[in-house]
Amino acid sequence: MSEFSHLPQSPETPSSHDLKIIKALLGDKVAAKYEGTGGKEISKDGTYVPSLEELEKVEEATIESNRETKAEETKRLWMVWANKYDINIEEVKSCAKFQENGEVIWEGDCNWDSKGLKEFPPNFVEVKGSFICSANNLINLSGCPNKIGRHFNCSDNSIINLEGSPKRIIGNFYCNHNKLISLVGGPLVVRGNFICFANQLTSLEGGPIVVEENYDCSNNQLLTLEGCPRLVSATLDCRNNIGIKKMPDRVEVRGAIKASKNQIELIADLNAKGYFYYTS
C-alpha cells in the first residue's frame, strides 16, 4: 500500500503549479493520472493522491531533512578552503572540532606557515595550542581565532594593524616583519614576549599594557615610546628608532633597555632616570 493511502482524496482539479509539485514528489506517471482524474482515485488498488496541503508538508519535511546543520556546513567550507591552500585534510579531520553552533575549535598546535594564505577558514574561534600563520599573504587578521592556548605567530606577512588578532595570549606574540602602522586591536596583556620589530610603526599606542617577558619594538620608525607597556618584566629593545628622545614616565622595565649608540638623547634620559641599559 502507498505511504499516501491514508490521506483523503483531493476533489479539486490541480493547477499547473500543483502538478509540478506532484510530479517532483511522486513522478510523471502519477502526475499524469492525477491531471486526468481531477484528484479522484488513480489506481485500481484504491490509492489516492494526497491533497496539495499534504504534499507541501511532505516537501517541507524533505527540504528540512536535507538541510545541512551549521556544523556540516562549516565542515564542508573548511574542506574547500583546505584544498585551496593545500592544507593537510587528515589533520583538519583530526584536529578541527566542529561545534553545533558552527564554530570551530582546533585541538593542539596549528602550523600553517608558508601556505600562501590570504584568509582564514570560517568560524575559527580557538586554538588550544600554538597557532602559526607566518610567511603567508595575509594583509589583515580578520577571521583569526580569538583565543590561543600558547604562542601566536603572524610574522612575515603584509599586515597593517592588529585588528582581529587574538585577545588572549598565554605565550609569545610575534608580529614582526609585517607592514604594521598601528598596534591597535592587539592583546592588552601578553604572558610571554611581544615581538613587533621590523615594521612601519611610528607609535606604540594601542599596544599591550603588560608584557611579562621581553618587548621588542626595534627597527621601526618610532618618534616616541609613548604607548609602550606600563610593565615589561624582562628586556625592552627600542634600537634603531632614531626619533626616540626619552622614556615615558611611569614605565617599569625590570630587565635591561637596549638602545642604539646613536640614540644620544634617549641615552642621556635613561641615565638621568636611573634605568639599566646597554647599547649596540
Count of extended strands: 18
Strands ordered across the widest β-sheet: 3-5-7-9-11-13-15-17-18
What general form does the structure show?
A: elongated
SS field, number of helical segments: 6
For the biggest sheet, the summary is: 9 strands, parallel
Based on helices, strands and strand pairing, what is the structural class? alpha/beta
Computed Rg:
32 Å
Q: What is the CA-CA span between the terminal residues? A: 91 Å
Task: Please indicate the percent range of residues in DSSP E strands (runs of 2 or more).
Answer: 15-25%
Helix content: 10-25%
Helix/strand order: HHHHHEEEEEEEEEEEEEEEEEHE
What is the typical, i.e. mean, pLDDT? 87
SSE arrangement:
Blueprint: H1 16-26, H2 28-37, H3 52-66, H4 70-84, H5 89-95, E1 96-98, E2 104-106, E3 110-111, E4 124-127, E5 131-132, E6 147-148, E7 152-153, E8 168-169, E9 173-174, E10 189-190, E11 194-195, E12 210-211, E13 215-216, E14 231-232, E15 236-237, E16 252-253, E17 257-259, H6 264-273, E18 277-279
Parallel strand pairs: 2-4, 3-5, 4-6, 5-7, 6-8, 7-9, 9-11, 10-12, 11-13, 12-14, 13-15, 14-16, 15-17, 17-18
Antiparallel strand pairs: 1-2
